[in-house]
Specification:
Layout lengths: L1 H10 L5 H19 L8 H13 L3 H19 L15 H25 L1 H5 L1 H4 L6 H14 L2 H19 L6 H13 L3 H27 L2 H21 L4 H26 L2 H13 L3 H21 L8 H18 L5 H15 L5 H14 L8 H16 L4 H18 L5 H15 L1 H29 L31 H17 L13 E8 L2 E8 H8 L6 E3 H8 L3 H12 L6 E4 L10 E4 L9 E3 L9 H30 L1 E3 H11 L6 H13 L3 E3 L6 E4 L2
Parallel strand pairs: 2-6
Antiparallel strand pairs: 1-2, 3-5, 4-5, 7-9, 8-9
Helix pairs in contact: 2-3, 2-4, 4-8, 5-8, 5-9, 5-10, 9-11, 10-11, 11-13, 12-13, 12-14, 13-14, 13-15, 14-15, 15-16, 15-17, 18-19, 18-20, 19-21, 20-22, 20-27, 21-22, 27-28, 27-29
Length: 718
């Protein structure tokens, strides 16, 4: 066979220049005839053989170049079917323009296939061996794209015409679907579909369904609206079957539909808590491919947006916690009853709550602590014990989302101390139930000080039983009954000591108790805190005898009227030693409140300099024991800052302890590994910059040192 091939090759006549030129003229004539849709003068087999002969004698490069030039000249001339020289677009209606474009494209494809069949030998030898050269078919596509479709005016007219036909079909008109299918296929084959058509198509779809969604939300009720959405989705699916949209375009189209036709409805349905319609919405999303993940994303974003408005609006601080609880109940109901207990939606809700509730550091934790205080305080008649337990359970769910739980602990401890010391706790069982919940959630270390406070109160009761027995054995028993709470300083909030002038009988009784207590517990130190003390006084009015339950400061003021009939504010301040702001609030509660046991001259709601006070003998009240509440000073900004600063200081101590603990165990550690270990151990949010400051502080105090050669490495100093 090899010998036969060599023999045939040798037997072929050597091609002359005239033969080559004549053959090319013959081929070019055939190409022109194909392009002009006229009859070809030569036999196709003869033309194919001529191409093979030229290729066999290394004329392929010239032949390929000449063929490309002929095709390019023809395609360039086709532009005048669509526009007049040089810039004006030809005057045709959109449909006629599209038909002309389609006819031109179909002719071009048919001609290119015919030309390729003649030049097949060239395509499969020379072109195939040169990877940088496009095939004859690809060359035809490139020329049509470059000279026809990439023309700015022609491309705009073509795309606008296609979009117009699609919009007509969406509006229920009959259109030539085969024409649209062919033109969309053309854009895809020419690789201009994405840049020339897809973006404009999606923008038009955005515009159409945004307007339609807004209009229908106002015109129709929600169920009818949702059914319309379902019908629209079916229509778009049918449209995608009829027309060759790209896969990526179909996905984006689906997303556009879901966004404009569903999200507008989703926000409204969630705002109005339309449970039945939300369930229908979930079913619609379930039927659409990729629908549930999109609904999940909108659900998550809605919760973040709505929750952020609650948390980040200072004007709503007063009702923030109640609004959060109501919002959580509402979202739980939707997740369970409308979204079929879908685990993904429940987890997305938890993630969204955790995100928005920590957008505003510290404040939600502080307000949750105060909300718990309002529910556990005596006088709260809003709920039974069972309802209170349910409220506490709901609060714990919100509490779990908070990162800075130590802020909650600081404010909770301050409020718990007031409830225990002033006897304002609604229920010891409810207090211990809350403590148990916190312990279960955060561990024993979190509640150790809180438990210590309860332990102090119980020990104090035992001590007072012993003290009463002790007093009965005294030769000179006092006519004042004293009750003392012994508080371990490390467990309780710190209180600023305030020196006041107590009556001689009280001072004497304090000394008796001090002698009794230190006799049993030597080495301990007692520090009296008058700010939280209270007393029951016996008073005589014209109406008869009464008992008045008052704070220690109120007691000191009232006892002065045993010694005189009238005093000025300056005289009371000097005699009692009470700080001015506290004294004004005390006098206001006694002379300007509901139970006015003192008269103020001149009359008024506020206590001013120069006011004078006298005992109100005409005071009347239906009860025998009257409780006169101290005017509570609202928690000042300074107090809040002070509590927050104490939390910050505690955090610094915890960071220092964690660093030393880690370094003591690991001996040598790089900065990044140390920071990573700290994030694993610390239970509150902390910035890398703060960690770096604490590390530098420990280096300065010789707890650790930097490596001399690698500054980013630390060594523990024993």
């Amino acid at each position: 066979l090899k010998k036969l091939v060599i023999k045939n090759f040798k037997d072929r006549p050597k091609l002359s220049e005239n033969y080559t030129e004549d053959t090319w003229l013959k081929l070019r004539g055939a190409v022109n005839a194909i392009q002009n849709s006229t009859s070809i003068k030569y036999n196709l087999e003869e033309l194919y053989q001529a191409v093979e002969n030229l290729c066999s004698y290394k004329v392929s490069p010239t032949l390929y170049k000449q063929l490309r030039q002929v095709c390019e000249d023809h395609v360039q001339a086709q532009i005048y079917l669509f526009r007049e020289y040089p810039f004006t677009i030809i005057s045709l209606d959109n449909l006629s323009f599209l038909k002309r474009m389609n006819r031109c494209w179909q002719d071009h494809c048919r001609q290119t296939i015919m030309i390729r069949s003649i030049f097949l030998f060239l395509d499969r030898t020379y072109v195939l061996q040169n990877s940088l050269l496009p095939s004859i078919w690809d060359t035809g596509l490139e020329l049509f794209r470059t000279h026809i479709v990439s023309d700015t005016a022609v491309q705009k007219r073509t795309v606008d015409g296609i979009l117009e036909q699609i919009e007509r079909e969406r509006n229920g008109e009959t259109v030539d679907r085969s024409l649209l299918r062919s033109l969309l296929g053309m854009l895809s084959d020419l690789q201009v579909y994405k840049e020339a058509f897809e973006e404009k198509f999606l923008n038009e779809t955005n515009r159409l369904y945004a307007a339609e969604g807004q209009r229908l939300m106002q015109e129709r009720d929600v169920p009818e609206y949702l059914h319309h959405v379902a019908r629209r989705l079916e229509e778009e699916n049918d449209l995608s079957v009829q027309h060759p949209f790209s896969d990526s375009c179909l996905k984006k189209l689906e997303t556009v539909l879901l966004f404009y036709l569903f999200f507008l409805g989703l926000s409204t349905l969630l705002d109005e808590n339309r449970v039945t319609e939300l369930a229908l919405l979930y079913q619609l999303f379930s039927k659409v491919k990729g629908g549930l993940p999109i609904l999940l994303q909108f659900w998550r974003e809605y919760i973040k947006s709505f929750g952020s408005e609650i948390v980040c609006t200072p004007e709503k601080d007063k009702d923030m916690v109640q609004e959060l609880l109501d919002f959580k109940d509402k979202m739980d109901n939707v997740a369970h009853n409308c979204f079929a207990h879908n685990e993904g939606f429940i987890n997305a809700m938890k993630e969204a709550f955790e995100t928005f509730i920590n957008k505003r550091p510290n404040k939600p934790a502080e307000l949750i602590a105060k909300y718990v205080d309002s529910k556990l305080r005596a006088g709260n008649k809003e709920a039974t014990e069972e309802e209170l337990e349910r409220i506490l359970d709901k609060i714990m769910i919100i509490f779990r989302f908070i990162h800075g739980k130590d802020v909650f602990e600081a404010f909770y401890k301050k409020d718990l101390a007031k409830r225990l010391l002033v006897g304002k706790s609604a229920s010891v069982d409810a207090e211990k139930s809350m403590l148990s919940k916190l312990k279960h959630e955060c561990g024993a270390a979190f509640t150790s000080k809180l438990e210590g406070m309860f332990k102090d109160m119980e020990l104090s009761k035992d001590i007072m039983i012993q003290f009463k027995q002790y007093m009965q054995n005294q030769s000179d028993p006092s006519n004042i009954e004293l009750t003392v709470n012994i508080l371990t300083m490390g467990y309780w909030p710190s209180y600023t000591p305030m020196e006041v002038h107590l009556p001689t009988e009280m001072v004497k009784l304090q000394e008796v108790f001090k002698l009794f207590y230190l006799g049993k517990h030597s080495g301990r130190k007692l520090q009296w805190q008058p700010t939280l003390g209270h007393a029951v006084l016996k008073a005589e009015f014209k109406e008869g005898k009464k008992e008045v339950q008052v704070s220690l400061f109120q007691t000191l003021v009232l006892l002065m009227f045993n010694e005189g009939e009238e005093f000025s504010i300056e005289e009371i301040r000097t005699a009692s030693g009470i700080e001015e702001g506290e004294l004004r609030r005390t006098l206001q509660s006694l002379a300007c409140g509901k139970a006015r046991v003192l008269n103020k001259t001149p009359r008024g709601k506020d206590v001013e300099d120069g006011d004078r006070f006298n005992f109100n003998m005409d005071f009347k009240h239906k009860l025998f024991r009257i409780k006169i509440n101290q005017i509570q000073m609202k928690e000042t900004v300074e107090e809040q800052v002070s509590t927050t600063e104490r939390v910050f200081q505690d955090r610094q101590y915890q960071i220092d302890a964690a660093v030393v603990r880690i370094m003591k165990m690991r001996k040598t550690l790089s900065h990044n590994l140390l920071v990573s270990e700290l994030y694993n151990q610390l239970k509150f949010p902390v910035k890398p910059g703060d960690l770096k400051k604490r590390i530098e502080s420990l280096i300065d105090r010789d707890y650790m040192e930097r490596d001399k050669e690698t500054p980013n490495q630390y060594h523990y100093v024993a």
